[in-house]
Amino acid sequence: MTVETTEGEKIIVIFDGARCIHARRCVTGEPAVFRANVQGPWIDADGATTQEILTVALNCPSGAITVARKDGGQEERAPKTNKIQIRENGPLAVNADVTVEGHGAMLRATLCRCGLSKNKPFCDNSHIKGGFAATGEPESTDATLALIELVGPVTITPTENGPYMVLGKLEIQSGTGRNINRVEKTWLCRCGHSKNKPYCDGSHKAAGFQAP
Fold it and tell me: pLDDT for 135-162, tens place per residue?
């Protein structure tokens, strides 16, 4: 799926369909801009104010929607707290100053943790049909690092046939936003088989998980 670019008077809306997980925050947030079930162009970049469209983009968990302002105003900035949120029976939702190796720099992404996505490392909702079951509310780690400023660059590397290697200061959160851990380096499961989710426990080897 190609990237769609829609230019309005004051803002340009970019939609990357390959990263969309159909959270529907766009069509419910600004239905005059993101028009569901229409023939032809479905994005009207003049259908709301620049700030309203920017707000919808910031609420897109997968980063499928981004914007470029033409009025010189403030665009999306790195968050004040780098975080990875664990979605119940679903992906890892990243909001950070992050580089996903092989895919470049971004501020938001939803990464597959069921091992079934055909668009790895990104989620494509295969966890739904696959019946993936994994809590979004794991227990908090007792040995949480005393990290206060959770900012700066983060690198996520999908290792070959293995987990995500995560380098950088960030908070791992439950689906409801509870602090699970604060880390500078960790390995997160992406095969779906770990018995210690969200962390890797080596189960990908016995499961024969294969992914670049």
Answer: 999 999 865 556 678 999 999 999 999 9
The answer to whether position 74 is within a domain reads no
Q: In this structure, what DSSP letter does residue 17 have?
A: G
Using DSSP's 3-state secondary structure scheme, residue 65 falls into strand
Please give the C-alpha separations between residue 28 and each of 17, 38, 56, in angstroms, as whole numbers: 17, 15, 9
Cβ-contact 184, 147 below 8 angstroms: yes
Place of tokens 């040995």: 143
Task: Give dist(CA 116, CA 118) in Å, integer.
Answer: 6
Q: Are 15 and 65 in contact (CB under 8 A)?
A: yes
17 and 99 share one domain: no
Residue range(s) defining the domain that contains residue 106: 83-207
Taking the C-alpha atoms of residue 108 and residue 79, their distance in angstroms, rounded to an integer, is 10
In this prediction the pTM is 0.92
Chain segment 23-79, per-residue pLDDT in tens: 999 999 999 999 988 998 999 999 999 999 999 999 999 999 999 999 999 889 999
CA contacts within 13 A on the Cβ side of 128: 5
Ordered strands of the 11-16 beta sheet: 3-7, 11-16, 65-69
Tokens standing for residue 207: 């499961």
